[in-house]
Amino acid sequence: MRVEYINPFVESAYNVLKEVLQCEVNRGELSLKSTSMPVLGVAAIVGLAGDVEGRVLFDMSRDTAIKVASAMLESMDMEAITELNDMGRATITELANMITGQAVTKLHNLNFKFDLTPPAIFTGDNMEVSNPDVEALIVPIELPMGKIEINVAVRERT
Amino acid sequence: MMADPTVLEKIERDVAATQARILDYKMVTFTLAGKDYGIDIMSVKEIAKFANFTYVPNTAPFVRGVYNLRGDIISIIDLRLMFNLPVPQKTADTAENGLILRTESNVVGVIVDSIDKVVSISSEAIQPPHPIFGDINIKYISGVVEHDDRLYIILDADRVFVKGAEKADPSRVPAEIVDPRANDRVFQPEQVHESYRVGDFIEQELFTLKGFTVSPVNRLWFLNRLQEWKTKYEGAQITDAEAAQEFLTTFTSRNRERLWPAAYLDSIRSSMKEPDGTLINVWAPDCGAGYEAYSIACAMKRAFVHKQIKVWASDTDLMRISSAPNLVFTQSEIAEEYDEWIVQGKNGPTCSNDFKEMILFEYSDALHSTSLPKMHAVVMRDVLSFLDEQQQNRFFSLLEEMIRPEGILILGDNEQPVDSASWVEVDDTNLTIFRKRA
Fold it and tell me: CB distance from A118 to chain B under 8 Å?
């Protein structure tokens, strides 16, 4: 992945999470993967198009998703959730949208033109994701609620 | 040059005494009719694919023909025919898997079903062949060894290919060769073979300490260096990173961590034909700080002024590759050929934005690169030698697919392709350039 793209994604993930969750956010070591990867249980996906093609995947366990969604809802004076209902799913989707949106805005300022697709969310057990043709950048984020893995797979149009 | 026998004896005793369990024997493994075989890596010159060899009439049935190996004509022998094993039907234009072997008397190519990998074992684990081995005559076998639940039959290249192999000296019983302690009193011809073992330990240490893999990519350099080293230090082993670094000093290519001198730019111009189309793609995997990428971009732009140049540069070291787009040079390394693309940045001379647009720096593992376009040139000096042998082989199959016909591959000063069949070396004193056959 082009080096200029890395920081916008890492920074916006950090900033957005810190802002909406008001908690400690720690970034783990970045890594690269090209094989298929297990999905922890809840995966929100946002597609990217424009100068590049690819997608960003936000992957977390169901438990983490419930806690993160609850924290976001409570900060807006809404009720916490106990299971991953429609409200919970919509909240996680929105989080994915916020992070990717901010990253794309930063990239626009660096003169890279990206568009977003509407986010989608997948839940289930024993899921895997694979992009045999695109190498994925893994940004692990540690939160008090658990771990979120941001998996960015984009490539230049050739 | 023959090494001093007393030194060899000493090393041999040390080895036998202190490193009894060390993995001191490397063999290239391959299959014939579904069975596993091995051959001492020191007798393997290269791993190759043979295509279009010339049939020679009136030779033994197992001689498939002759082959032009970079100007030397070598015979190609089909081991399956030689050992009366079934040969799978292949169409005439399919390349055959093979090895190029260096024997006592000459260099020959052998065809096998498939090449497996390089296996390191302890020479003590090798057992003498059992007389009932059926398919292959026992006199060609130097032993058997079990590794990873597979039984490998180790062939003795010299006996298979020495003229009149049948008349091989009966005193050379198989166990003698594989047991390093069997002959530590008298210096016999086999001990030349033992002297290569010293090289094996050094190979191991270079890999452990420096990640440097001795393989067909750099074996020519390695064997020369080993001789020098043994002369200088009387067979001294490498025991720490400092010694390994010293061993490798003659390996490192010239002008690597700096912009190339002007003469190198001319080398690129003279080694490449002007390609069709408007875009020239260049790949610089593991480019580190980025010097190779900037240099090749400049060389291409100078050689083909009217073409658009795109250099795909990558590295897995996030810190180094992240700073590559803003690399600052020192004034002294900038030849005047670069002047038109250099601007004075706030930290020193750097490349102009127009120039930088030609290069795309990616944080990427080169072995994952499957989505890149076909390349006109690939520059990877001193990269392959620091990958393990399996990765090197994967890299070469990737390069084979990725480089356009007549495209060029630039390797380190002391490197060469694993599989020479598809490449022709370009005569050049500055860079080591191979052109892909059309």
Answer: no
Distances (CA, A) of B244 to A15, B18, B200, B388: 46, 21, 14, 17
Q: Which residues of A touch B372 (CB under 8 A)?
A: 158
Contacts of A149 (CB under 8 A, 6+ apart): A40, A58, A59, A60, A138, A139, A140, A141
Would you say residue B60 lies in a domain? Answer: yes
Which positions in chain B have a beta carbon within 8 angstroms of at least one beta carbon in chain A?
Answer: 316, 318, 321-322, 324-325, 360-365, 368-373
- A3/B370 CB distance under 8 A: no
Choose the closest CB to A34 out of B318, B325, B368.
B368
Cα–Cα distance measured from residue B347 to residue B132, given in angstroms and rounded to the nearest whole number: 75
Structure tokens at B395: 């890299």
C-alpha to C-alpha distances, B44 to B107, B118, B342, nearest whole angstrom = 10, 11, 48
What gap in Å lies between CA B324 and CA B290, rounded to an integer? 5
Strand residue runs (E) in chain A:
26-27, 31-33, 37-39, 42-50, 52-60, 114-116, 120-123, 127-129, 136-143, 146-156
Q: Do residues B182 and B175 touch, judged by C-beta distance below 8 A? A: yes
CA dist B393 → A150, B51, B52, B370 (Å): 32, 18, 22, 15
On whether both B163 and B211 belong to a single domain, the answer is no
Determine the Cα–Cα distance for residues B372 and B389; give it in Å rounded to an integer: 23
Count of domains for chain B: 3
**Structure tokens of B100?**
């190029």
Signed CA dihedral, B325, B330, B332, B333: sign only: negative
Residue B69: pLDDT band with limits 50, 70, 90:
confident
Say yes or no: B246 and B275 in one domain. Answer: no
Cβ–Cβ < 8 Å for B16, B184 = yes
**What is the C-alpha separation between B200 and B214, in angstroms, rounded?**
9
B270 shares its domain with B412: yes
Q: Which SS3 state, helix, strand or coil, does residue B68 take? A: strand
Residue B110 belongs to domain spanning: 25-173
Which residue is associated with the tokens 């806690």? Answer: A67
- Both structure tokens of B41: 């890596």
- The last residue of one of the domains, among B229, B251, B273, is B251
| Residue B181 domain flag | no
Tokens of B383: 């990269």
Task: Give this prediction's pTM.
Answer: 0.63
- Domains of chain A, first to last: 3-156 (3.40.1550.10)
CATH number at residue B352: 3.40.50.150
Residue B412: alpha-carbon gap to chain centroid: 11
Instruction: Judge whether A110 is closer than 8 Å to chain B, CB to CB.
Output: no
Q: What is the pLDDT of residues A75-134, one digit of tens each?
A: 888 888 999 999 999 999 999 999 999 999 999 998 888 899 999 999 998 888 887 778
Mean pLDDT of B46-74: 81
